[in-house]
Amino acid sequence: MAVWDSIRDALNTFRPASVIDVLSIAVVIYLALLLLKGTTAMSLLRGIIIVVIAAVVMAQVLNLTVLDWLLRNSFPALLIAIPIIFQSEIRRFLERVGRTGRWPWPGRALYEGVVDTIAEATLQLSEKQQGAIIVVERETGLEDYIDSGIKLDAEASTKLLLSIFYPNSALHDGAVIVRGDRVVAASVTLPLSERMQGFHGTRHRAALGISERSDAVAVVVSEETGQISIAANGRAISNLDGPRLRGILRSLLLPAMEMDRPAGRRLPRLSR
Fold first, then answer.
1. C-alpha–C-alpha distance, residues 209 and 229, integer Å
2. Listed residue (175, 108, 98) closest to 142, CA to CA
3. Higher per-residue pLDDT: 257 or 208
4. What is the pTM of this model?
5. Does the chain have fewer CB atoms within 10 Å around its N or its C terminus?
6. Of 207, 200, 125, 219, which Cα lies nearest the Cα of 163?
7. What is the pLDDT of residues 107-157, one digit of tens each?
8. pLDDT of residue 207
9. Quick check: 202 and 192 in contact, CB under 8 A?
10. How far apart are CA 234 and CA 249, in angstroms?
11. Which CATH class is domain 111-265?
12. Nearest Cα to 215, choosing from 144, 111, 136?
């Protein structure tokens, strides 16, 4: 009965201004999650939430007085700690808003055109035996890695990718990261995989490393042999020609388009 009384009292105090109040809080929470999306801070936030929930449950179930008091009085400290812990993410968010003049609302990635662009550039690089690594961002954001390179924010094109990986060019070393239909950064440093998987080159280990830590798709061209490989989900497949390269990229980036593919023409699974 006390619960219904509390609900009734809350409804009685509800005013039109309360709608604005609730929406404002919802927008703040949404923007906070948006600026943390695709960063290591999101994993840190999940860890903090899990620890806090576990502590609250223990305090209530086991009647831990001291822990309960500590949780109740730690809110002012959290207000100070949160800006310190997430200062780099907050700074990046504010810089993005100030630079673009608009809120960074997420959009649907435009992979249709970029698949052919990447495939065409990769095949030309392979013919010339020019080493390259192109990483396509999917659901998991790669902001932490983008910050390690040179930001471009240019429309993806075959000529742009060829010029970036031209031998001895300023941006030749490192990876290119593609988001949607734009090249967002070049000369990016990627984490190296601990698993060799028959690959001993730095580019191949970097492609496996980023695919192990995210859902990104990495296309690699060997500088020694011109061999083309694709890494995704911590797995890799190599010795790709043009049709297989395009087919695998479409199966990974455009899964909806592969629904109509006949069973006899399904693409090979990426092997460990």
1. 14
2. 175
3. 208
4. 0.61
5. N
6. 125
7. 444 567 889 999 999 999 999 999 999 999 887 778 888 888 999 989 999
8. 92
9. yes
10. 15
11. alpha beta
12. 136
**Structural tokens at position 245:** 């390269």
Higher pLDDT, 232 or 91: 232
- pLDDT above 50: residue 105: no
Q: In what order do the strands lie in the sheet with 217-221?
A: 150-155, 182-188, 175-179, 132-137, 217-221, 228-232, 235-237
* Tokens coding 269: 């699974």
122 neighbors 115 (Cβ within 8 angstroms)? no
Cβ neighbours for 266, distance < 8 A, ≥ 6 positions apart: none
Domain ranges of the chain: 2-100, 111-265
Residue whose structure tokens are 């929470």: 29
Q: In the chain, where do the E strands start and end? A: 132-137, 150-155, 175-179, 182-188, 217-221, 228-232, 235-237
Which amino acid is it at 137? E
Between the two ends of the chain, the Cα-to-Cα distance in Å is: 60
115 within 8 A of 246, measured Cβ to Cβ: yes
The dihedrals phi and psi of 41, each to the nearest 5 degrees, come to -65, -30
